[in-house]
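Q: Predict the assembly, please.
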Amino acid sequence: MTSDTAIRPSPDALLMQAAREGRGRLKIFIGAAPGVGKTWAMLDDAHRRYAEGVDVLAALIETHGRAETQAKLSGLPTLARKPVIYKGRALTEMDLDGLLARRPTLALIDELAHTNAEGGRHEKRWQDVEEVLAAGIDVFTTLNIQHIETLNETVARITGVRVRETVPDRVLEMADEIELIDIPPDELLQRLKQGKVYPQDQAARALTSFFAKGNLTALRELALRAAADRVDAQLREHMAANAITGPWPTQERILVCVNESPASREAIRVAKRSADRARAEWIALNVTQARSESLSDADKDRLAGTLRLAERLGGELATLDSEHDVAQAILTYATDRNVKRIIIGRPRRRPVWARLTSEDVASILLRQSGKFEITLAAEAEDRKRKPGFNLPRLSGEPRAWAEALVAVAIASLCSYAAERLFPVASLSVIYMTAVVVVASRRGLGPALATSLLGFLAYNFLFTEPRYSFQISRQGEFLTLGLFLVASLITGNLAARLRARIDAQSAIADRTNKLYDFSRRVAAAATADDVIWASVSHVASTLRCEVVLLRPSPAGDLHVVGGFPPEDRLDIRDQSAAQFTWDKGEPAGMGSDTLPTARWFFLPLVAGERKLGVLGIAYTDDRLFARTDRRLLDALVDQIALALERLRLTEELAESRLASETDRLRTALLSSVSHDLRTPLVTIIGAAGSLADTPDLAAAARRDLAENIREEGERLDRYVQNLLDMTKIGHGALKPRLAPVDVGELLGAARHRLRAPLRAHQVLAHLPDSLPLVLTDEVLLEQVMVNILDNAAKYAEAGSTIAVAARSDGARLELSITDSGPGIPAADQARVFDMFYRVTEGDRQRAGTGLGLAICKGLTEAMGGTIRAETALPDGTGTRIVLSLPLFNPETST
Amino acid sequence: MTPATRILVIDDEAPIRRFLRIPLEAEGHSVIEAGTAKDGILAVARETPGLVILDLGLPDADGLTVLREIRGWSMVPVLVLSVRADEAGKVAALDAGAQDYVVKPFGVNELLARIRSLLRDRAGSSTPAVIEAVDLRIDSANHTVTQADIPLHLTRKEFDLLWLLASHAGRLVTQGMILKSLWGPAHAEDSQYLRVYVRQLRQKLGDDAANPRYIMTEPGIGYRFLG
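A: Predicted assembly structure:
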């Protein structure tokens, strides 16, 4: 009766836990459409695992006749398909029973959504996969987005193609890992055309319907979203709120049109609120025109501020270039981006004549927007504005005016020379050329001046009566008039073109600088990297000195980075920085607050969160250029976002760690409550019997006492395990390496385990010439005790436990083999995990799930390795192999 | 078979003192108990026990401190109670003058065996010239060993090693003690010598290290001759 106390089954809690742990792991390679390379990626991953020694089996791969897939499959063990006859047709299906009998560690099962031919065990392949997982086999599988049940309808609406085969969402939720296989639509279309996806003839047909580029784009977004839905919900919200590139629902988008008007800010806020409510994405669209460049500086600042606000509140920024029909451009864009709702600032009151000549954009939108919902947002505070019309500013550099004069002079000289060859009327073309040249170089004002000057010069020099401003002939009057009109128009056009080019290159420059910066900070892995990238980039872009301040854990703001390196600020600058931090407003040089400070400070804010303060100072007496300020604002936002992203990543990593710790704590609690209590039950019970039953036979008394002792010893081993585990966990283990004779330790281990090993025979085959190993003898003895204890637990009473050792000159391999039920190949790597126990039907041995984990921890601490193998060809028997470094008298002393 | 002795148990756990008292008294010894280091030291001075069982973890002072204090004026044999995986503590206690140790939790049989061998040592104060153990007969005067009456050929060092272990039969001999007495104080750390000689000795004795009849290894501490 004493020996079977060691194999008493565990309570349900541990069984359930073990059942969950006994399941295989599911990894789904998900893609937006056929042909993106899911199967290929799966095979690629499988090859990697195979090379690592994992027992991989390609249970079912659909190559669809794709050569590159077929090639990728070679080299992997493959399971033969099972032929089935369905409605008179010979088909092949996956051999589920064959797979289960073969028991690989990892099975590759392509196309999760496949419907099996009638007569199979399950109707759907995903049901096959569930069974395979339940058998403890890991599965890799592939899935297209349109097969996910809840997305099926959406996909059908987008593509007009409905698929019959669907997979319930819970299968997706079951996945331990999802890998999104993503390629841009253009690349997929290219692959399709090259016949890499379908054989050539099918490709043309497929192209017309399902594979339209618009469809692919929408599907791709769906796929991204489905994959990202698995990501922690809290992080997602954070990301959305902070404009970090992330997953978004595709169904709804809100478009907000912004321009320089103050109402645009309100429109942004309305958009943000509606988007939050609908959990939708929103886009802030600014339509630029040539006139955008002729805005006043105040307007430009306001527009930049509005766009920054949008960016900060999590909107996507978009810029459209449209010279003519702004409303139409907006509507086209809205249709392209699947927008449902458009928000625009209420137009300001305009003078009567302006209302007569043109309608404002908002009104046109209201009139033309059949399928869109239009919202007008009113300006928050109705500030008085100067009504009207901005004349093109005729200011400019003196050089530009001089150039106008020179151009006219040159044109006059050319005309003088050409007068003999051409009729006088044609000479106006030469002046016209001068106008166009000046316009394209210097803009509208000088162009107008050139045309007026040209008109006068032409009149004075070449029309009859010459050298007077009088005009005698009717025809010449007409020529001069037409010249003036034509040169005004061409001058204007050329000047606008010029303005556009300037505007574009300014935008391109700014975009490049920002892009450069975001690329640099994206690569930064730590806060220090981000800070360094930030200060150095701002310094080189704006050619100024830069400092970045963040609060210390104690709360006081201090310099964490500077370019050139700087670690202190004087008291005035420090208080300006503090003001910026406290109030979230700029302060310091050139601002309203503490303008005498040397530095100018800007807050680093992402969402609602204050992250730091950025300060800049010019070494010379240069003042802030407005363009610098706008660029700086944008950079500051980028820095704040980068810091915030890093903070979120760290938070996520911490929460992952916490949940892993939680899992272990739960397992530990359940183990402690079971493994500590079970022996105590016996001890208390037996002691009670001894104390309270006075006339017990001597044999019975001995039996009870023996019982108490064995359970007590078991408890002691368990406590020792817990202590060892704690030491390993805390890294408190400091092995004392010394030359050790393995045989001696085996003797000591057997001595300690004489009670549990009583029912077994231990056969040791240790050669006399076995070299010494360099290890910690106390730890190695503990490892041997745990392995032998385990062997005694799992092998039948009366069976033999064999211990053997051999050396290859560098290491010694010690193997301990039992004739127990064996460990399935799939579990061999996992038996060393904490609280992992191999289940075997309903029976469960009284292991703690700690013994082998401790062996691994101790062995690795001593510089050794440990592995589990199947001992016998029929899959039974377990062999644990320890590999230890040999003692070398020359190097080890 | 062992003379009745007065045994002092210094342990702060009353249940442990109680369960020690029963088998010790059954063996014919008398038992004195002390729950603290202070009481323990006083009891050694006043009662002059013939053996001390000392727990290394005491509430008011380290057991090692108690041991050093006692060793200042008494050579009473001390048996230390220690916990597993505290090899450093055990070695320190043995270095400080403890004769042997038992790992908690322990069986009563094991404890009584240790006590017997400690008291036997004390009774026969002079080591005999010939030791007989199991089927061995070890003659120190002639440097001969016979096993079941068949002579064995041992080298000088092998003989010294066997003699050292056998003359402390049942008791622990630390690695440091062996190395110092066989190779001299300069080699106290060279445990690979010891491994090699122990293995050779075992081979000549026909002793299986994995299942020993004569020499038992105590990992991290030393050896014990199974007398």
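Confidence is low (pLDDT under 50) at residues 1-20, 230-250, 381-395, 840-845 of chain A. The CA atoms of residues 396 and 445 of chain A lie 8 Å apart.
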